[in-house]
């Protein structure tokens, strides 16, 4: 008996990579639309338990600081250091044709990325990532959509 919940199967073909001639171990860095503004340098981080937006990104987007809610929350980084996220904000995030309101923790520190999308957003999107294929796939009412990494932006973030 087939499970009807698997009607939209997400799969990755061996040859379907961004640049087969140059295999890399790049991070998955994409572009998303956040509150109707195209935002580059969005890191997809399956190891992050939070969706993070940086304070300077909000300022560049022209988002009023009064929309940010005080919400002290410690974030533990890979190096073991703790960073405080002092605020949170809910913003509409569009990936392809799908829009989800996402709660971001706001961090006030320099970063190579504008946004880090972690497991809360990935799970809400029912998204599957492939670091080998450097893409993100997710189901929509019209089938499976794919967002490929931006190779230029990935290299800039890596060098920073």
Automatic annotation (TrEMBL):
Record's CDD domains?
Answer: retropepsin_like
Q: Which SUPFAM superfamilies match?
A: Acid proteases (SSF50630)
User: Span of the secretion signal?
Assistant: none
The record's listing under InterPro entries reads:
Peptidase_aspartic_dom_sf (IPR021109)
This one is known as Peptidase A2 domain-containing protein
Lineage of this protein's species?
Eukaryota, Viridiplantae, Streptophyta, Embryophyta, Tracheophyta
